[in-house]
């Protein structure tokens, strides 16, 4: 019997936790959660944790039974490992909620092979991560232990889960591939998807280069099958392949909104779609250039272009043609086959699908590339829409080998816990430590089964440091989500994070005398990236945010000027540094609100497999903070977009921004509903997407809808890429 399936008649913690959902004297019984936590530790954890008479005995057992990697231990004198443990023990770490402890022991703690005993506490998992990412550097290992035991830094789930284990999956969170328009490339892409899904997180694949259904093949008309059959092949591949049984395989396919198969692509998610074409488990997204927004604004017809013809005319795959710049030329070119539809009809179809399924994600691809500081073009994204990096196409020969080795994307993620990081006494040291931990994952990743991904990783050394707990920070400091103080704080926090990640990457480049590939062609190298920070004033605008940052050094124009000179002189090691991923179960362990989103409920209800319902109170919830914890479903989504826009101006990649909608809109929430139906319509989503576009939002991840029968549908738990 699983440790977490203990006889529920003999334990009290589930009943105590459930009392959170039963008000007493019209008050939430918050104390019951602490009682449930204490009961869980006493009734479940303590009696079922394997005990050892010494730390040496514990490590001998773990090594002899192949639980931990001996190479990890061999990097250090054991006296240092004892010193590290002495430090961790002295911090007296305590879980803050029942859910935090439950999630850790259910999903992250190492257990005996028969599942009968825990052989890891939280500090043991922190120690494994610190030793692993320290890579023999004792100072870095101690610094990492300090950041993690105080929950200022949290590696992504695959990294945190697998670090130091002898039997493990890979550490990388996500990958991005693209297929070019030939059978060799399609076959190689499917093989790559299988390989990457087996070892790591989610895989994003762009299919825009593929010729449309009905296009000719070697002069034979109507021979091509288009993108939908390839989607079906990929869906089956992901279902088959998973990360050594630890995580489900998951993928997303992206298509340009100007691809002729766009309507068939969207139709695969319809509930009444034919089983031959219906896509059930594969996620889907669109790359949307500025031209589409212009055409919908003017209620104009739009043309969809044959990728095969475009590639012949431009000599480059469809993904690499600037549709906004070349649109009129392509319309006028008789050698390019095109299909005419109405732009607003397509816009409405897009919104219908988001209402029904939550899909597709939307990548505002021109917005992405205008802000991209790196030479090259971003053409796609990952499973959760926050990774946005340049790619180069490969050429595959008949032997499935690379005639031209391009670059695809791998990214490893981590997150700052905003509330706890703001308590740091040395923000620069904290962020430097985090960047070095993430960089180690990039340096240590061996991805030779997909050479294009290996090549991209070796050229760019890309990482993705993000954040969670923003709503908790607002509530704790009595700020309403999306108000002026909240926007002010978000702006300052991410400006600071940008500065210190740049400084850390510059230090690594100086130490190693190495920069990312083509650094000299970037806006970092010519210094123009830094001009907005030097020419504009970046300081808190509100009294409260001034007070919050009073003990920290916020970079000044002079600091930015010095950093500009340092980067122009010595470069950067990491081509990309920041990305805000969704945060899943690990945010519970950290007692943090998810990512940058508003909470859903003050007391969140989770269905835990066979266990039943578990309740989780929002962090720092008490009589003083309750008014500041408004549900996402009751908040004007323009406030969410505003918050993300403040962060996005400082984040070099993207952010997984979800929009939360109600099937019946509360009166007064959106002024355009006045005098119209109170039901959510395609118009509502059209307006919000256009608002996000005007605010320079790079991506919209998912649409979640709360229905009139009090259920959510279209909920996507991105486990593969979530932190």
Automatic annotation (TrEMBL):
EC number: 1.17.4.1
Keyword Nucleotide-binding: yes
Enzyme class: oxidoreductase
GO (cellular component) term, any one: ribonucleoside-diphosphate reductase complex
Pfam families reported in the protein's UniProt record: Ribonuc_red_lgC, Ribonuc_red_lgN, RNR_N
Signal peptide feature range: none
SUPFAM superfamilies: PFL-like glycyl radical enzymes, R1 subunit of ribonucleotide reductase, N-terminal domain
InterPro entries (alphabetical): NrdE_NrdA_C, RNR_1b_NrdE, RNR_lg_C, RNR_lsu_N, RNR_N, RNR_R1-su_N, Rrm1
Gene Ontology molecular-function annotations: ATP binding; ribonucleoside-diphosphate reductase activity, thioredoxin disulfide as acceptor
Keyword tRNA-binding: no
Catalytic activity of the protein: a 2'-deoxyribonucleoside 5'-diphosphate + [thioredoxin]-disulfide + H2O = a ribonucleoside 5'-diphosphate + [thioredoxin]-dithiol
Alphabetical UniProt keywords: Allosteric enzyme, ATP-binding, Deoxyribonucleotide synthesis, Disulfide bond, Nucleotide-binding, Oxidoreductase
Organism superkingdom: Bacteria
GO biological process, one term: deoxyribonucleotide biosynthetic process
Sequence ranges assigned to domain Ribonucleotide reductase large subunit in this UniProt record: 560-582
NCBIfam families: NrdE_NrdA, RNR_1b_NrdE
Membership in a protein family: Belongs to the ribonucleoside diphosphate reductase large chain family.
PANTHER family according to UniProt: RIBONUCLEOSIDE-DIPHOSPHATE REDUCTASE 2 SUBUNIT ALPHA, RIBONUCLEOSIDE-DIPHOSPHATE REDUCTASE LARGE CHAIN
Job of this protein: Provides the precursors necessary for DNA synthesis. Catalyzes the biosynthesis of deoxyribonucleotides from the corresponding ribonucleotides.
Name this protein carries in UniProt: Ribonucleoside-diphosphate reductase
Biological source species: Weissella viridescens
């Amino acid at each position: 019997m699983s440790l977490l399936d203990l006889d529920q008649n003999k334990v009290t913690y589930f009943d105590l936790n459930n009392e959170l959902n039963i008000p007493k004297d019209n008050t939430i019984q918050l104390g019951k959660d602490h009682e449930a936590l204490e009961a869980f530790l006493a009734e479940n954890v303590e009696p079922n944790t394997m005990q050892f008479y010494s730390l040496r005995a514990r490590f001998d057992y773990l090594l002899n039974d192949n639980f931990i990697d001996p190479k990890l231990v061999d990097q250090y004198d054991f006296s240092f490992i004892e010193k590290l443990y002495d430090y961790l023990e002295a911090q007296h770490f305590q879980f803050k909620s029942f859910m935090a402890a439950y999630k850790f022991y259910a999903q992250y703690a190492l257990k005996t092979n028969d599942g009968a005993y825990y052989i890891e506490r939280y500090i043991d998992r922190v120690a494994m991560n610190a030793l692993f990412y320290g890579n023999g550097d004792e100072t870095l290992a101690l610094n990492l232990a300090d950041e993690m035991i105080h929950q200022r830094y949290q590696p992504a789930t695959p990294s945190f889960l697998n670090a130091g284990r002898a039997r493990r999956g890979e550490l990388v969170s996500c990958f991005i591939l693209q297929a070019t328009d030939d059978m060799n490339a399609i076959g190689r892409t499917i093989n790559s998807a299988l390989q990457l899904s087996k070892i790591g997180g989610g895989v994003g694949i762009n299919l825009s280069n593929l010729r449309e259904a009905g296009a000719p093949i070697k002069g034979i008309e109507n021979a091509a099958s288009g993108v939908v059959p390839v989607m079906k092949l990929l869906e089956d591949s992901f279902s088959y392949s998973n990360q050594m049984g630890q995580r489900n395989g998951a993928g997303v396919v992206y298509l340009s909104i100007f691809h002729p198969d766009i309507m068939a692509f969207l139709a695969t998610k319809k509930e009444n779609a034919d089983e031959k074409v219906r896509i059930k488990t594969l996620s889907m997204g669109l790359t949307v250039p500025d031209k589409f927004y212009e055409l919908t604004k003017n209620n104009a017809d739009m043309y969809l272009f044959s990728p095969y013809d475009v590639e012949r005319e431009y000599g480059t795959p469809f993904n690499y043609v600037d549709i906004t710049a070349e649109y009129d030329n392509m319309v006028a070119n008789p050698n390019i086959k095109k299909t005419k539809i109405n732009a607003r009809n397509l816009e409405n179809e897009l919104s219908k699908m988001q209402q029904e399924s939550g899909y597709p994600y939307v990548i505002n691809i021109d917005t992405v590339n205008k802000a991209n500081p790196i030479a090259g073009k971003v053409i796609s994204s990952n499973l959760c829409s926050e990774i946005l990096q340049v790619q180069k196409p490969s050429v595959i020969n008949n032997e499935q080998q690379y005639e031209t080795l391009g670059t695809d994307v791998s990214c490893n993620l981590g997150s700052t816990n905003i509330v706890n990081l703001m308590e740091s006494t040395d923000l620069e040291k904290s962020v430097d430590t985090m960047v070095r931990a993430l960089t180690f994952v990039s340096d240590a990743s061996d991805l030779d089964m997909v050479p294009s991904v290996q090549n991209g990783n070796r050229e760019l050394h890309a990482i993705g440091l993000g954040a969670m707990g923003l709503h908790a920070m607002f509530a704790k400091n009595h700020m309403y989500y999306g108000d002026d103080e909240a926007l002010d704080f978000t702006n300052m926090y991410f400006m600071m994070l940008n500065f210190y990640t740049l400084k850390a990457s510059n230090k690594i480049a100086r130490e190693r005398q190495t920069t990312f590939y083509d650094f000299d062609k970037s806006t970092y190298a010519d210094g123009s990236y830094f001009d907005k920070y030097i020419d504009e004033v970046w300081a808190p605008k509100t009294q409260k945010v001034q007070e919050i940052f009073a003990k920290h050094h916020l970079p000044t124009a002079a600091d930015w000027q010095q950093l500009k000179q340092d980067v122009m002189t010595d470069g950067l090691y990491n081509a990309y540094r920041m990305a805000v991923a969704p945060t899943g179960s690990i945010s519970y362990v950290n007692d943090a609100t998810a990512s940058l989103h508003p909470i859903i409920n003050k007391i969140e209800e989770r269905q835990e497999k066979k266990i039943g319902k578990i309740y989780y109170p929002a962090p720092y919830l008490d009589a003083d903070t309750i008014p500041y914890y408004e549900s996402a479903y009751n908040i004007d989504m323009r406030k969410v977009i505003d918050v993300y826009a403040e962060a996005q101006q400082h984040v070099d990649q993207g952010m997984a921004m979800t929009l939360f909608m109600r099937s019946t809109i509360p009166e007064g929430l959106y002024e355009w509903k006045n005098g119209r139906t109170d039901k959510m319509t395609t118009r509502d989503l059209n307006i919000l997407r256009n608002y996000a576009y005007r605010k320079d939002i790079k991506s919209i991840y998912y649409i979640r809808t709360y229905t009139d029968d009090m259920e959510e549908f279209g909920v996507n738990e991105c486990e593969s890429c979530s932190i």
